[in-house]
Amino acid sequence: MDIRQITPDYFVSPQIDPADMPAIAEAGFTCVICNRPDSEIPPSHHADVMAQAAEAAGLAFKVLPLTHQTMTPDNVAAQMGFAADAPGKVLAYCASGTRCTVIWALGQAGTQSVDDILATAQKGGYDLEGLRPTLTALSGA
């Protein structure tokens, strides 16, 4: 697993395996968010399979498949709600962790400076500089 910290309670990762769920729980995570559409992966890693593995490990599991077209305000709010409602650390995953980081960044627009958002993403290993105009527009700056 390649788990990367974005904030003290929000972490992202490329695709995980159902067999990773016990280790994720042991690492102190309480919730896993699947941001990867089933159409991108084999049936062995579809959201229903991942949900069963997460629940067997004692983890909450949320499904919010994301594409460029589905980075909507409603989905941003849903992702931020999943993270806020979790009683501890959250792990969001997709193909590379980028979509999970982008949706986090969009959710921070207007609450943090654009520079701080981009610097936080960069510390996690994600260069979101191309998102600067969108973040600036969303923050009303």
Automatic annotation (TrEMBL):
<dbReference type="Pfam" id="PF04273">
    <property type="entry name" value="BLH_phosphatase"/>
</dbReference>
<dbReference type="InterPro" id="IPR005939">
    <property type="entry name" value="BLH_phosphatase-like"/>
</dbReference>
<dbReference type="GO" id="GO:0016740">
    <property type="term" value="F:transferase activity"/>
</dbReference>
<keyword id="KW-0808">Transferase</keyword>
<protein>
    <submittedName>
        <fullName>TIGR01244 family sulfur transferase</fullName>
    </submittedName>
</protein>
<feature type="domain" description="Beta-lactamase hydrolase-like protein phosphatase-like">
    <location>
        <begin position="2"/>
        <end position="110"/>
    </location>
</feature>
<dbReference type="InterPro" id="IPR029021">
    <property type="entry name" value="Prot-tyrosine_phosphatase-like"/>
</dbReference>
